[in-house]
Amino acid sequence: MGSGKTTAVIDYINQSSHPILIIVERQTEVDRLAKYCPSLVSLSEVCEDTGESRTDALERHVMEGFTPISRTF
């Protein structure tokens, strides 16, 4: 059983009133965090929808004040 690190991150994200940039190693981690944190914007999904590169989507969402999540580039 885990030690609660991801749960602590989820709680922190959901309680934060400031944008946070989240980069994780695996897409499964992106999916799990996005499922439990409605404020997150998955860059993978944005790129699929818009055709943007992850770098362009990241820059745009940070500038707009969103909390993006992505796997490592």
Explain the overall architecture.
53% of the residues lie in helices and 15% in strands. It is an alpha/beta fold. A three-stranded parallel β-sheet has the order 1-3-2, with helices on both faces. The chain starts with a helix and ends with a strand. The mean pLDDT is 91.
Number of helices: 4
Instruction: Please give the number of β-strands.
Output: 3
Low-confidence stretches: none
**Beta strand %:** 15-25%
Biggest β-sheet strands, sense, barrel:
3 strands, parallel
Domain count: the total is 1
Taking Cα atoms only, what radius of gyration do you get, to the nearest Å?
12 Å
Q: CA-to-CA gap between the ends? A: 29 Å
Strand numbers in spatial order across the main sheet? 1-3-2
Shape: globular
Overall pLDDT level? 91
Q: What is the ordering of alpha helices and beta strands?
A: HEHEHHE
What descriptors fit this protein?
73 residues; alpha/beta; three-stranded parallel sheet; 4 helices; 15% strand; globular
What is the topology?
Elements: H1 5-15, E1 22-24, H2 27-36, E2 40-42, H3 43-50, H4 54-63, E3 67-71
Parallel strand pairs: 1-3, 2-3
In short:
This protein is an alpha/beta fold.
